[in-house]
Amino acid sequence: MGTVPAWARAYVAGVVLLALACLAPLLHLRVPWGIVAPLAVLYAGCERVTLPLLPRAAGAPGGDTARGMGTFLPVLLAGAFLLPPSAAALVALPGALLAPVERRPRGPRRIWRAAQLAVAVWAASRTYGACGGRETLVTPDFPYALVPAGAAALTFCAVLTVLDGGILALAERAPVRGAWHGLFARSLAPVAVHGLAGLMMAVLWRSPYGPVAALLVLLPMYVSCWVFAQYHRERAAHQATIRALVQAVDIKDGYTRGHSERVGRASVMIAHELGMHDERVEVLRFAGILHDVGKLGVPTRLLRKDGPLTPEERRVIELHPEYGHEMVRGIGFLGEARSAILHHHERLDGSGYPYGLAGAQIPEFARVVAVADAFDAMTSTRSYRRARPVRAALEELARCAGTQFDPRMVAALARALDRHGWHPVVTADTAPAVASGMPPAHPSGTVGRSAP
């Protein structure tokens, strides 16, 4: 575990000890192997079969094993409903320890996942028993039976959230304030659905139809898993296309290398301050990343020109928002991002381009990206000038708020920077500085524009 930070190793060790404490009563109790063994084998088999279907989520805690973390939770939750807490925790161990892991260190990742799931299943089973759930399996009482099952699913989700946030903060070095942000909300719906499937498995297992009938519940879950995987494969293909377009822009316009990714990040910070839903935040991130993709349609000699632009050359460069809009109009999931790409150079006073929109006529996403674009342009080092300090850039944005920029977006960025700071990967152009006394070619008199 040499590559894992010391605090993260201590955290994982603590969770492993907690998992062992959850399993300790098995030393003195009779293990119901007739239920534990089939469920453990079934869970391990499901993880091995379905894990390759799912794309790995970038930054997911636990690395590659996180791909399958929710695939067959019904098996684990069925164990929580059917078994005492310690025996239920045992069900998760073989599948977690045998699951394929691509990222190193593989052993610690498997151990972490096994301990995390064991603790979560133990807590869910404990909650289920405390709410009287065991009696509902013997004497079914619908809909009352849903209450203890729902409480167990909530407990399972909460424990995973707490543990995942801790490993994100310590091992992935995520900001402490944001490590747990959105984890519970994103996990709740899938865990609730899997909890219902687990409850159906448990009820059928205890019914006269027996364990074989309980296995039939997994068939629709596998189908849904396959559909889910197809959706994410398509999404991953779109993201790969977006990355290729951004890399092409960075190569073509050396003055702004890395600019697109940073604008995407700043746009997300603004979106969080505005309270946007996660789905819109993701689309806005794409808008920030792709806002300059239209530069691919602009002659390279104009983007790299060392002298002042002629009026004709400036008009050609000012076509890049329309070029960009045409390039991405067929990517359906971008949604509002397309309008941001088209209108991110509009100004609040109506003097921008390409259509001279003013005020509320400018789409919200475009107003966000305009502020993020200007902020990064001012705080990035370029071949023709040094970066401004963050505070100076914010003062300039505030000065232009109400004429060029939406004051609400400027204020949101300022709050986000006060809260989180600004620590982007700086990718400065390595070309020699402009030696002549002429003004830089790309910035116009308008604040923050690295190119028209």
TrEMBL record:
Gene3D superfamilies: Hypothetical protein af1432. Residues 234-429 form the HD-GYP domain. Residues 432-452 are annotated as: Disordered. The chain crosses the membrane at residues 6-26, 71-99, 111-129, 149-171, 183-205, 211-229. Keywords: Hydrolase, Membrane, Transmembrane, Transmembrane helix. Residues 256-378 form the HD domain. It comes from the Bacteria. Signal peptide: none annotated. GO terms for molecular function: hydrolase activity. The keyword Membrane applies. The keyword Membrane applies. NCBIfam families: HDIG (TIGR00277). This is Metal-dependent phosphohydrolase. It comes from Streptomyces populi. The lineage of its organism: Bacteria, Bacillati, Actinomycetota, Actinomycetes, Kitasatosporales.
